[in-house]
UniProtKB/TrEMBL annotation:
Record key words, sorted: Coiled coil, Nucleus
InterPro entries, per the entry: HS1-bd
GO biological-process terms attached to the record: cellular heat acclimation
GO MF term (any one): transcription corepressor activity
A Pfam family hit: HSBP1
Protein name: Heat shock factor-binding protein 1
Subcellular location as annotated: Nucleus
GO cellular component: cytosol; nucleus
Biological role: Negative regulator of the heat shock response. Negatively affects HSF1 DNA-binding activity. May have a role in the suppression of the activation of the stress response during the aging process.
Family annotation (PANTHER family): HEAT SHOCK FACTOR BINDING PROTEIN 1
Family listed: Belongs to the HSBP1 family.
Subunit structure and binding partners: Homohexamer. Associates with heptad repeats of HSF1 trimers and probably also HSF1 monomers, and with HSP70. Association with HSF1 trimers and HSP70 coincides with attenuation of heat shock response and the conversion of HSF1 trimer to monomer.
Positions in coiled-coil regions: 47-81
């Protein structure tokens, strides 16, 4: 009978050790998951910020191109095919 009790105590001890190890591993996984989510959040925020900056830069470039085209029109310069620019002929 005593052998039976010793085996029961050993089994309970092993089960408790396994439970403790499982809990430790679970806590580590949860901690890593929280850290990972935090890093993903920071990366997402930075990427969104960069995309917003690029969008803003694109709008500025569009405005600049429009202003240049307006100035060229005011100066009487016509756009030819390619990059060559020549003064427009005034028809009077």
């Amino acid at each position: 009978m005593e052998f039976y009790w010793r085996v029961c105590v050993q089994v309970q001890t092993l089960l408790q050790q396994m439970q403790d190890k499982f809990q430790t591993m679970s806590d580590q996984i949860i901690g890593r998951n929280i850290l990972f989510e935090s890093q993903i959040g920071a990366i997402h925020y930075r990427c969104t910020s960069i995309l917003n900056e690029l969008d803003d830069m694109s709008c500025r470039i569009d405005d600049l191109e429009k202003n240049i085209a307006d100035l060229m029109t005011q100066a009487g310069v016509e756009e030819l095919e390619g990059e060559n620019k020549t003064p427009a002929t005034n028809k009077s």
